[in-house]
């Protein structure tokens, strides 16, 4: 009699324990799912995905798109005016230029004056102003925007912080490119103004008058110095060929760090040899590099054919030198200008 009553009780206990164990496992898995994040490559950028949050960089458009299920977006003209505010589920596209990203932990004060206590949540703030772009275009309008995401779980915020570090590096590069373009534009405008005011007289060149070797070398050297100024580095090994008017036909200006300036077919590249390839091509040497538009989805390289007319032993020496540098670098980067 006693054993007969004990067996059902034991079975009920085991079933209850199994249900509790299964429920606990499902709860743990669900919490893990809520905190899961991923970073993936998309055409022309990268995408960070978490529960209720997606942040995507768009390199060609120089923009960042943020999609969130719960946020606060404020938009206000720089010249003054009413601030527009949206809350809830949002899809916001922000210019990379002038964008700042901040990640901070949310803590509550101790009413008794002790140390603030962590809440387990963080705040992510995207602060953007298109003032630099407006200034570059000589426009007076512009807007200031702020997208604030509160109560982001700390685990997700920590992973996003790593993604944001990469975004900041990319944004700094975009802003540097804009600053260079603005400086070049100002210089051109100043030169044009001086010419218009009669301060500088630029006579038309008579192409029938031959130039001396020294004049042609001076013109080519001046062009190389302009490229070096834009690139921000200077090569220690240089080979070039220029035409009778001193215009550079092809050029390689190599820095021991792995940075290089290449010119051929009226295109110029200033950047790193990471990920480049080098091969012989008849009486030329072909160096193929990655430009700003290179992605894993579109792995094509931009080719420059140089050293045309050089001696075979010179081409072999350059090929070996470039291969050693490329192999030592391992990574990939670059910038092309047309």
Short description:
With 338 residues, the chain is an alpha+beta fold. It folds into two domains: 37-181, no CATH class; 214-337, PH-domain like (Roll).
Task: Please explain how this structure is put together.
- By secondary structure, the chain is an alpha+beta fold.
- The chain folds into 2 domains: 37-181, no CATH class; 214-337, PH-domain like (Roll).
- The protein has helices spanning 2-34, 131-136, 154-196, 213-231, 312-329, and strands at 37-42, 45-50, 53-58, 63-77, 84-95, 100-108, 117-129, 143-153, 237-242, 248-254, 259-264, 267-272, 277-281, 284-289, 302-306, 336-337.
- Strands 1, 2, 3, 4, 5, 6, 7 and 8 form an 8-stranded antiparallel sheet that branches.
- A hairpin with a 5-residue loop joins strand 9 (237-242) and strand 10.
- The longest helix is centred in the middle third of the chain and has 43 residues, at 154-196.
- The termini are far apart.
Count of DSSP H/I helices: 5
Strand content: 35-45%
Following the backbone from N to C, one meets helices and strands in this order, namely HEEEEEEEHEHHEEEEEEEHE
The overall pLDDT, averaged over residues, is 82
Largest sheet: 8 strands, antiparallel
Share of helix among residues? 25-40%
Q: What structural category characterises the helix and strand content?
A: alpha+beta
Number of strands: 16
| Count of domains | 2
* Cα-atom radius of gyration: 30 Å
Please state the overall shape, judged from the principal axes of the Cα atoms. elongated
What is the CA-CA span between the terminal residues? 95 Å
Spans with pLDDT under 50 lasting ≥5 residues? 331-338
């Amino acid at each position: 009699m006693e054993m007969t009553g004990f067996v059902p009780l034991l079975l009920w206990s085991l079933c209850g324990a199994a249900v509790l164990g299964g429920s606990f496992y499902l709860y743990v898995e669900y919490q893990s799912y809520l905190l899961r994040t991923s970073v993936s490559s998309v055409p022309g950028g990268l995408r960070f995905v978490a529960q209720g949050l997606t942040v995507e960089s768009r390199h060609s458009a120089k923009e960042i798109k943020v999609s969130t299920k719960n946020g606060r977006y404020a938009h206000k003209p720089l010249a003054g005016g009413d601030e527009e505010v949206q809350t809830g589920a949002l899809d916001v596209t922000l210019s990379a230029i002038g964008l700042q990203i901040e990640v901070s932990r949310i803590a509550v004060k101790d009413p008794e004056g002790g140390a603030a206590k962590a809440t387990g949540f963080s705040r992510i703030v995207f602060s953007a102003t298109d003032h630099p772009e407006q200034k570059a275009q000589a426009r007076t309008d512009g807007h200031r925007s702020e997208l604030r995401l509160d109560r982001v779980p700390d685990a997700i915020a920590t992973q996003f912080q790593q993604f944001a570090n990469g975004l900041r590096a990319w944004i700094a590069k975009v802003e540097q490119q804009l600053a260079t373009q603005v400086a070049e534009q100002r210089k051109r405008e100043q030169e044009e103004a001086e010419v218009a005011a009669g301060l500088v007289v630029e006579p038309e060149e008579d192409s029938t008058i031959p130039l001396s070797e020294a004049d042609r070398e001076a013109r080519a050297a001046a062009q190389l110095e302009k490229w070096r100024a834009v690139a921000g580095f200077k090569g220690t090994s240089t080979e070039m060929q220029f035409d009778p008017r001193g215009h550079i036909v092809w050029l390689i200006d190599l820095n021991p760090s792995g940075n290089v300036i290449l010119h051929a077919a009226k295109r110029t590249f200033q950047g790193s040899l990471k990920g480049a390839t080098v091969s012989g091509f008849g009486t030329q040497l072909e160096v193929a590099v990655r430009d700003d538009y290179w992605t894993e989805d579109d792995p094509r390289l931009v080719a420059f054919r140089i050293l045309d007319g050089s001696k075979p032993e010179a081409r072999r020496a350059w090929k070996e030198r470039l291969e050693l540098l490329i192999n030592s670098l391992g990574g990939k980067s670059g910038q092309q200008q047309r």
